[in-house]
Amino acid sequence: MVTITAGAEKKIQELMAEEQDSVGLRIYVRGGGCHGYQYGMAFESKIGDDDTVIEKGVVKVIMDPQSAPLLQGTEVDYVDSLQGSGFAIKNPQAKTTCGCGSSFSA
User: Fold this and answer.
1) Which phi and psi angles does 36 have, rounded to 5°?
2) Which of 45, 52, 37 is nearest to 95 (CA)?
3) What is the pLDDT of residue 95?
């Protein structure tokens, strides 16, 4: 369903160590952005009964039932380059994406 690269796994572990009661990283899609949908990420303190959970090592990635189908086949990576650092989402379902990489159309 969703692939977490080794680089993303390591960075999520580092960031989770700083959070007090985090059980995982929630990745979600919401309406907005310049192409209709926008990605979001937040540390989560609980997992809902209808959430989809993917485990990579000790890292848990959590998705709500509305976001999970839109994230099908997505790869989450962590990029550290001269242009900046951050999570990069590669979604094969995205027909068009914004230059910022945080919004797309399906």
Assistant:
1) 110, -40
2) 37
3) 67
